[in-house]
Amino acid sequence: DLIHPNTLFGMGNPLLDISAVVDKDFLDKYTLKPNDQILAEDKHKALFEELVKTFKVEYHAGGATQNSIKIAQWMIQEPHNVGTFFGCIGKDKFGEILKQKAEEAHIDAHYYEQNEEPTGTCAACITGDNRSLVANLAAANCYKKDKHLDLEENWKLVEKAKVYYIAGFFLTVSLESILKVAKHASENNKLFCLNLSAPFICQFFKDNLMQVLPYVDVLFGNETEAAAFAKEQDFQTEDLKEIAKKAQALPKVNKERKRIVVLTQGKDETVMIETFPVLKIDPKDIVDTNGAGDAFVGGFLSELVQDKSLDQCVKAAHYAANVIIRRAGCTFPEKPDFS
């Protein structure tokens, strides 16, 4: 029962990660929390230059949604191009690297390429097993529904998919693109998955988030995002299981499917109304937690597109995250060892 190409569709911000192990002074200088995701402001402009000059940096293809699609493809292995990805890049060296890396990961990436802005980057500032991410969206912020998503050949790829995944980060870029895909999924009883992605999404892009939420079949998030979401929604609880239940009960357009809420908390158990223990890892084996959340989603999606049970989805999610945190960036060995 072979799975078809383009079964899994993702759309988001394609970024080149510039990652380095930094020190506390560097974090303090740019008022960064050790474990956070933010959008770059003017005060962070110098951060990117200093990072490259001062520390030993590595370049990895990144962007949360794109990472997850690649991990799902890696877990599935064959056929190639099960995962489709849309996003916007610049016509430059970094854009070429992203195209090359997408090809190497065997995903079907269709980038909207424009000249106005350079390809987006994300500074991953690593201290211990924390990572502070500062995203300079640049080109990623220029994605346009009418210039790309609406084009017949592109929309055909959307229609081919059965499972859709978009990280909450894209809510800052193109709400209308997300809604078009979300409505298509809902109207055709397909699975639409969204990630809360960061506390700032739950706080400052709450209106956009709540416009999309009625179409969401699977909602992902971690404990800090869940707490921010609960506060903004006035859930009046900090209990992760309660938050999951309340998020599940929020209005939903497609009544055929009950919403699934999956909340992770690092090394502690994953909450999905019932809880699942995570695979244990020796802290000294943790190289870099950047990409662990994306890998979790990728593993989950890889089983979801094959109509596997939810506990099998969670098992695959834990497996993928466990592999990724042993490596730098969102990178992976040649083949998974998962069944």
Automatic annotation (TrEMBL):
It is found in: Nucleus. Binds 3 Mg(2+) ions per subunit. It comes from the Eukaryota. The active site is at D294 (proton acceptor). GO terms for biological process: AMP salvage; purine nucleobase metabolic process; purine ribonucleoside salvage. Transmembrane segments: none annotated. Residues 29-333 form the Carbohydrate kinase PfkB domain. Its cofactor is Mg(2+). GO terms for cellular component: cytosol; nucleus. Catalyzes the phosphorylation of the purine nucleoside adenosine at the 5' position in an ATP-dependent manner. Serves as a potential regulator of concentrations of extracellular adenosine and intracellular adenine nucleotides. This is Adenosine kinase. It comes from Sphaeramia orbicularis (orbiculate cardinalfish).
